[in-house]
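From the methods appendix. Each design record in this collection lists the tokenized structure first, followed by the designed amino acid sequence. Records were kept in a plain field format so they could be parsed without special tools. The example shown here is representative of the layout used throughout.

RECORD:
FOLD TOKENS (317 positions):
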């Protein structure tokens, strides 16, 4: 079932979350153990992130460095398929621009279609750590809008190889990312919203937001979207603070603000456990307010751990 259909059929706020594939060498059991407690709350769907290749440099021992390209978190398609068929839950694998050519993207989508996975979340992805700006692969997409268009083409039976005969259309429901505090690379909020509207007009069916810690920014974002003529479901994405370093790391990494009340309390935390407890309590209050406002779903970024998400869901769902 499409995520858009799941959202439209529900009369209550749904629960969903995102997981990361384990580092290479990990097992599916590592993933399942972390998410099994969350199944108690009947997630509407589970997102599985995709990660591009990274460049690492290894010391050869002679004063020289060897450049090596690795993919540290493979397995998105396999994990998505396992979760959908073992847990009988809809999965939403991410599709990214970085590290993939258009043909590699098409092949990944064909694999997902064969597996009966027909939901995807389209994001451009972050630049490689060795790059200051995002650089696509040769014959890859530089903008997530172009990736949305490629998927819509497949839904119409249009493949990259133009002379294919009797092609079978795919059936993907496409989600895209939205930024209540604007994308860090966007020149301003207005241009960010215009670009978001283009993705909806191209065929995306719903929006999942970047994390935020002040619900007013989400409500303002939804209102701004409506004024722009964007009327698809807008799902708030939440991540509880979990370490003392998040005071500085989250704003720097994601281009977001922490409310002053949260920042002051986080500054008082002497241990990561204190910070984690603060994050749980803050996110419980955020979630309750969002549910009271009848948002379609609340989506949680687990970052590979679920104990704090479990406590939040226990208090709210």
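DESIGN:
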């Amino acid at each position: 079932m499409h995520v858009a259909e799941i959202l439209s059929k529900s009369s209550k706020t749904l629960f969903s979350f995102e997981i990361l594939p384990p580092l290479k060498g990990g097992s599916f059991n590592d993933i399942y153990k972390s998410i099994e407690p969350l199944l108690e709350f009947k997630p509407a769907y589970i997102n599985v992130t995709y990660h591009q290749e990274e460049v690492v440099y290894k010391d050869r021992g002679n004063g020289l460095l060897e450049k090596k390209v690795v993919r540290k978190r493979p397995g998105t398609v396999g994990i998505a398929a396992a979760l959908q068929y073992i847990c009988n839950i809809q999965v939403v694998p991410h599709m990214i621009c970085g590290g993939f050519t258009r043909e590699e993207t098409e092949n990944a989508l064909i694999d997902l279609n064969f597996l009966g996975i027909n939901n995807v979340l389209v994001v451009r992805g972050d630049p490689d750590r060795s790059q200051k700006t995002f650089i696509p692969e040769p014959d890859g997409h530089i903008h997530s809008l172009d990736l949305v268009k490629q998927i819509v083409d497949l839904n119409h039976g249009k493949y990259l190889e133009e002379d294919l005969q009797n092609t079978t259309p795919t059936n993907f429901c496409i989600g895209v990312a939205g930024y209540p505090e604007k994308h860090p690379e966007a020149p301003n909020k207005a241009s960010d919203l215009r670009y978001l509207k283009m993705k909806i007009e191209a065929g995306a069916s719903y929006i999942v937001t970047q994390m935020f810690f002040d619900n007013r920014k989400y409500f303002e974002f939804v209102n701004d979207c409506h004024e722009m003529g964007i009327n698809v479901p807008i799902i708030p994405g939440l991540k509880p603070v979990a370490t003392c370093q998040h005071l500085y790391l989250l704003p720097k990494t994601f281009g977001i603000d922490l409310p002053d009340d949260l920042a002051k309390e986080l500054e008082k935390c002497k241990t990561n456990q204190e910070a984690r407890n603060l994050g749980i309590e803050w996110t419980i209050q955020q979630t309750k307010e969002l549910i009271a406002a009848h948002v379609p779903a609340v989506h949680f970024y687990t970052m590979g751990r679920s104990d704090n998400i479990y406590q939040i869901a226990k208090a709210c769902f």
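APPENDIX NOTE: The domain at 3-316 is CATH 3.20.20.220 (TIM Barrel).
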